[in-house]
Amino acid sequence: MNKELEIEFVTLLEQHQNILHKICKLYTADMDSHNDLFQEMVIQLWRAYPSFKGDAKFSTWAYRVALNTAISLFRTKKRKIEMVPWDNHILNIRCEDYDTQQEEQLRFLYTAVRQLTDIEKALVYMYLEDKDYVEIAETLGISEVNARVKMNRIKTKLKNILNKKGTAEWMG
Amino acid sequence: MDGLDLLKQHWNTDENFPKVDKESLRTMLHKSSSSLVKWIFIISVIELFVGIALGFLINIEEINEKPLLHLINNIYTVVFYVIVGYFIFLFFRNYKTIKNTKNTKSLLQTILNTREQVNKYIKFNIYCILFSMFIVCVEKIYSYIEERHGWGEILFYSVTFTIASTLVYLLMVRIVKYYYKILYRRLIKKLDVNYEELTRLEIEA
């Protein structure tokens, strides 16, 4: 692949890299896994880039390939060394800006989301990104009705996970 | 406020991610992928070649000099390599259709189909080994009859050969099953679970 294409791709990716980071945050629990998944997503995006026609938005195209990487291609490495959890890393940086109780709620929420299946996490990601059900269904290859049904089930499942953790009262 | 809504509120404002610069991104582009598909490809290619090597090993040994058995062996060799060639063609054709830009369900389906093709190839090889062992058994028994051994002796050798062959075959099947159990757990399970979840959703609706 030529240099120009590479420069074009890297420029676009640098601007939109938070898409990848956000997906990594839902699918991984520590920084090293986050970085591994991020790297694999970059490789997969680069491989698929020649097929990017430009008729779709780069961000839309990128999140689909990134989700596919997390669901179908990424192989979690077994690690012997204890890793630094994502939330600790981020929340430690931000502890002065944040209300402690809200931080704690968010930490529980992220932990709960990570207990969902790969497919459920993909739905949560697209829900958080305000994608409509037509797009969600199209991305996953299921019907729109099923995407809605699944999303409702996920909300119930999350509520149950949080209830078990005794945080229901926090979440209203 | 609902849990997901609280998360959404935070999600939209969350900018606190590591910033990867262009140079690091460029370096990442040229790193080797460690994707499941890559591993499935490597393992599948090894298995395809082990199958071919096995075919050679079985053929190297002159299993018979009897015209009929010789003819069967020749037909078997030709059929074996034609089918192996067809399997290899199918594998590479299916592998080329794996595109990470497909929708998730189609992508999972294509990967699993490609792998399934290799599983069929392994089963085919096991049946071929079984067939070769059967031919060897027939040839040995035939030789004993020709050498005019006593019927008791012929019966004894026939039973011994059949039992030994069956045991070897069963052991081989057990090893292959165990190998798949390990391989399945390491590589395919994640894909299977995700694909099943998407399929189940369609059935339940």
From TrEMBL, chain A:
The keyword Ubl conjugation does not apply. The keyword Transcription regulation applies. Pfam families: Sigma70_r2, Sigma70_r4_2. GO terms for molecular function: DNA binding; sigma factor activity. InterPro entries: RNA_pol_sigma-70-like, RNA_pol_sigma-70_dom, RNA_pol_sigma70_r2, RNA_pol_sigma70_r4_t2, RNA_pol_sigma_r2, RNA_pol_sigma_r3/r4-like, WH-like_DNA-bd_sf. One of its GO terms (biological process) is DNA-templated transcription initiation. Keywords: Sigma factor, Transcription, Transcription regulation. Belongs to the sigma-70 factor family. ECF subfamily. This is RNA polymerase sigma-70 factor, ECF subfamily.
Automatic annotation (TrEMBL), chain B:
The chain crosses the membrane at residues 36-58, 70-92, 124-142, 154-180. Keywords: Membrane, Transmembrane, Transmembrane helix. It comes from Sphingobacterium psychroaquaticum. This is Uncharacterized protein.
